[in-house]
Write a structure and sequence with these properties.
The protein is α+β, with helices and mostly antiparallel strands and 188 residues long. The protein has two domains: 73 residues, no CATH class; 111 residues, no CATH class. The protein is built from seven helices and four strands, in the order ααααααββαββ. Strands 1-2-4-3 form a four-stranded antiparallel beta sheet, with helices on one face. It is elongated.
């Protein structure tokens, strides 16, 4: 495989750079094997590519490394602009409930996102659609929730910025794994 043809920009380029740093050259090439054609793929084919890439990563490097790669992707996906929005929404809110209302209404279509406050330091966010543009058109379920750890880290970065302290995020449900919704438990 010609390394020159591997995408260098966008989410797939970011993923490639992270995989290259965290794996051997052989594993990197195996995972990125079909990536030069990625830009020509339709949305469903892109989702298939991601499913296969993460399965290969998990098989070759183990679940822990694969999750770490996806979390690294998620930390970069939630960039400065997203964190700034989180902080602004929190600053404009007088309570956790008001913040969550502002959050679910910020640029989200009706009924796509919800929340439930469990106690004064824990809440759930629930998505009835996959929000990841890379995989939301997937027709096949993913074999594990590893890919979704990108979203776990995205949520961690977003809500840590809002609360100005590190939060813990747990993935409870994933549409990509056959659940009726994606559900993240946020504890701060």
């Amino acid at each position: 495989m010609n390394k020159q043809n591997i995408p260098k920009t966008g989410r797939i380029g970011r993923f490639a750079k992270i995989v290259e740093k965290k794996t051997s050259q052989k594993v990197f090439e195996s995972i990125m094997e079909d990536s030069p054609k990625y830009d020509q793929y339709k949305a469903e084919q892109k989702a298939d590519w991601w499913r296969n890439a993460v399965e290969k990563l998990e098989l070759e490097m183990g679940r822990e490394t694969a999750m770490n790669v996806m979390q690294t992707c998620g930390s970069k996906c939630c960039g400065a602009g997203q964190r700034k929005i989180a902080k602004r929404l929190m600053d404009e809110s007088s309570s956790l409930e008001e913040f969550l209302e502002n959050f679910i209404n910020y640029g989200v279509k009706d009924n796509e996102l919800g929340y439930e406050i469990l106690d004064e330091k824990t809440f759930l966010t629930m998505h009835n659609k996959c929000f990841c543009g890379q995989v939301k058109k997937s027709k096949e379920l993913f074999n594990s929730d590893t890919y979704c750890h990108c979203s776990v880290e995205f949520n961690k970065q977003f809500f840590s910025a809002a609360f100005e302290k590190t939060v813990q995020v747990k993935l409870n449900k994933s549409i990509l794994n056959g659940d009726d919704r994606c559900e993240f438990e946020i504890h701060f």
